[in-house]
């Protein structure tokens, strides 16, 4: 990925992992049209880059993302085109994250509300700090939901819990988020960065093509009959034998060293 300078986000590479940081901390990393477009551009570039084997999304300062920047809204029907454009751009990013064959790790430190809630749910692995707070938030404005939240939430927590969350709209702390399946793991405040880095490094050093195929199998399995899913599993596992990582894993299985995966 070529070096690109952004105004509202930061993109940093560390070995095989890349981190996208939402960088409007004075505004709780709320999304503006410009930030939304930059996020889409960065995520697209990173998930297209074969040299990036894990993407981390996190926020700067005391929040992950507090949703859309409400200062852009007037509170009436004139907001419709603004909200439609914001949602459409965000949804391109969500689709990219959801369909990426690269593992996606989201680090939530502080509030993930509204669009930030949906963005957090799109992660394959979600690490929450002890300050994390997950909030659907839309009913407070008399709005529905976007960012894929109504798609991911019932799949993660079940229909009954999903309705509870979207209707009662109570903030969810890190421990309950893990219990519900919204977050993967909760870290103590001082251990958040360390845990996030450890998870990203582990995934970035893994069998990237196998990760991509198994992610796709798990995701698409919701929409298939068992017979079709079994056929897809047969194709995926057979195709994986063509990779260098399979050869390395097989050799290590019968040897004394750990496999050295190269992501292809």
TrEMBL record:
Task: Recite the UniProt keywords alphabetically.
Answer: Isomerase
Query: Which SUPFAM superfamilies does the protein's record reference?
Result: ClpP/crotonase
| Keyword Isomerase set for record | yes
Return the protein name.
2-(1,2-epoxy-1,2-dihydrophenyl)acetyl-CoA isomerase
Q: Which GO terms describe its molecular function?
A: isomerase activity
UniProt keyword annotation of Nucleotidyltransferase present: no
One family from Pfam that matches here is ECH_1
């Amino acid at each position: 990925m070529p070096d690109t300078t952004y105004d509202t986000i930061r993109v940093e590479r560390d070995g095989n992992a890349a981190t996208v940081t939402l960088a409007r901390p004075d505004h709780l990393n709320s999304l503006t049209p410009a930030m939304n477009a930059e996020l889409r551009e960065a995520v697209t570039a990173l998930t297209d880059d074969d040299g990036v084997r894990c993407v981390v999304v996190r926020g700067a300062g005391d929040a992950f993302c507090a949703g859309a920047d409400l200062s852009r809204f007037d509170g009436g029907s004139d907001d419709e085109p603004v909200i439609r454009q914001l949602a459409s751009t965000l949804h391109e990013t969500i689709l990219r994250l959801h369909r990426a064959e690269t593992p996606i790790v989201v680090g939530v430190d502080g509030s993930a509300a509204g669009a930030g809630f949906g963005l957090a749910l799109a992660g394959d692995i979600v690490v929450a700090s002890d300050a994390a707070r997950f909030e659907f938030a839309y009913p407070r404005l008399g709005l529905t939901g976007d960012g894929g939240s109504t798609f991911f939430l019932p799949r993660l927590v079940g229909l009954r819990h999903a309705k509870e969350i979207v209707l009662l709209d109570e903030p969810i702390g890190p421990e309950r988020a893990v219990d519900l399946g919204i977050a993967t793991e909760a870290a103590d405040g001082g251990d958040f960065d360390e845990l996030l880095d450890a998870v990203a490094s582990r995934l970035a050093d893994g069998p990237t093509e196998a990760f991509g195929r198994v992610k796709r199998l798990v995701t698409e399995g919701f929409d298939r009959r068992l017979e079709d899913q079994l056929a897809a599993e047969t194709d995926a596992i057979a195709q994986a034998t063509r990779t260098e990582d399979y050869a390395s894993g097989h050799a290590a299985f019968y040897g004394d060293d750990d496999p050295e995966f190269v992501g292809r």
